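Hi all, posting the design record for the shared folder.

TITLE: backbone redesign
STEP: 1 of 1
STRUCTURE INPUT:
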């Protein structure tokens, strides 16, 4: 199972305060003091959250705009690896419109204490499929709604 981060955005005055890192960490991991070691003694492994165990999450992925070096560095600093290649045309309204994929493989033990290693990247994953979005498929967008003006009664 993969946890996909669709959007993680902070207004610029709040960046660098640890808010996004704390949010991400609280979703994926238990308390920072709960650290075990993997079968490779030099690799510390943080205990994953009950949500990760409940949904059997093995990887966490996100798309990052190809020119957003700050975001790529942010993910790498948290253990993510930047995948090779650029997905061209991912962002339709941005130029350039490519995206890079970042991925975090999770290693954790099941209830019997058996290590649960992430699957190999080349292993087939038939649990999901990418569906191309049609231009006019009846999906609502933000532009479909009137703006809310502060102070007006709704």
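Okay, here is what came back for every position:
SEQUENCE:
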């Amino acid at each position: 199972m993969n946890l996909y981060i669709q959007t993680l955005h902070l207004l610029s005055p709040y960046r660098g305060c640890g808010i996004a890192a704390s949010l991400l960490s609280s979703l994926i991991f238990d308390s920072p003091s709960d650290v075990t070691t993997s079968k490779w003694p030099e690799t510390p492994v943080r205990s994953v959250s009950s949500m990760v165990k409940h949904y059997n999450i093995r990887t966490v992925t996100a798309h990052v705009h190809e020119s957003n070096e700050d975001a790529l560095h942010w993910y790498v600093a948290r253990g993510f690896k930047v995948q090779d290649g650029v997905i061209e045309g991912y962002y339709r309204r941005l130029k350039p419109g490519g995206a890079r994929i970042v991925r975090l493989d999770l290693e954790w033990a099941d209830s019997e204490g058996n290590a649960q290693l992430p699957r190999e990247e080349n292993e087939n994953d038939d649990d999901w499929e990418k569906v191309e979005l049609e231009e006019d498929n009846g999906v609502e967008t933000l532009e479909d709604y009137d703006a809310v003006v502060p102070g007006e009664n709704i």
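COMMENT: The first strand starts at residue 2 and ends at 5.
Let me know if anyone wants the other runs.
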